[in-house]
Design brief:
The protein is mainly alpha-helical. It is built from four helices and no strands.
Amino acid sequence: MVSAFGKTTLGLTYSLVFGEALLSPAIPSVAARAGGIFFPLAKALCLACGSDPDKGTQKKMGAYVMKTCFQTTTVSSAMWGPGG
């Protein structure tokens, strides 16, 4: 998905959002899904694109991608969690 949609920052975040939506019913634990799969993937993608907080370039792309991943995780958790 990332290779197909990742030509722009918006396409990259859409691919992460759709991946989260596809996996959220199968992996109900938000900690396993977000902390084990999506946040490390998003961080690696940001670092590969040159957005590194150690170099002061975190707002180049990383802040947007990480905030979008966090919000997506919250929404998918509410959709598929107990009582959702």
